[in-house]
Write a structure and sequence with these properties.
With about 130 residues, the protein is mainly alpha-helical. About 45% of the residues lie in helices and about 10% in strands. The protein starts with 11 loop residues before the first strand and ends with a helix.
Length: about 130
């Protein structure tokens, strides 16, 4: 965080982790502690820095990588309420909505967990919508 984020004195930071954490069944409290450590360092360096906690998209529900990703959204929402200037985006809502009407392969690049260009545009729209409200 120090070399790749704080060194640039950013006004906005987007922290996006969770896909691999979920695939390895990282306990939600450990995930929260890891994300919170980053938030604390960023805020200590500049309390005015705003932070978006970007919850991961979901892996293919039929893939081995689909584990506890859904359990990792609540910790992000908790952090967003605990720190001023921090918001969270739950990208699972996009996936769950799409899965009602689309096949996973229609918005995924590798049929496991990498978004295609359509899904990347949807993620970008979610970020822009959040920035407009932030």
């Amino acid at each position: 965080v120090e070399d790749k984020v704080i060194a640039y004195d950013p006004d906005l930071v987007i922290i996006g982790f969770g896909m691999n954490d979920g695939s390895f069944n990282t306990p939600p409290i450990a995930y929260k502690n890891n994300i919170e450590a980053m938030v604390k360092k960023i805020k200590a360096a500049n309390e005015e820095t705003e932070i978006i906690l970007l919850g991961t998209i979901l892996p293919n529900p039929e893939a081995d990588q689909f584990k506890n990703q859904l359990d990792l959204y609540e910790p992000l929402e908790e952090l967003a309420t605990e720190y001023e200037g921090v918001v969270s985006i739950n990208l699972a809502n996009l996936d769950l909505g799409f899965l009602k009407n689309k096949r996973y392969t229609e918005y995924n690049a590798n049929n496991i967990n990498h978004p295609n260009d359509f899904m990347m545009r949807c993620i970008t729209m979610a970020i822009i919508s959040t920035l407009a409200e932030f």
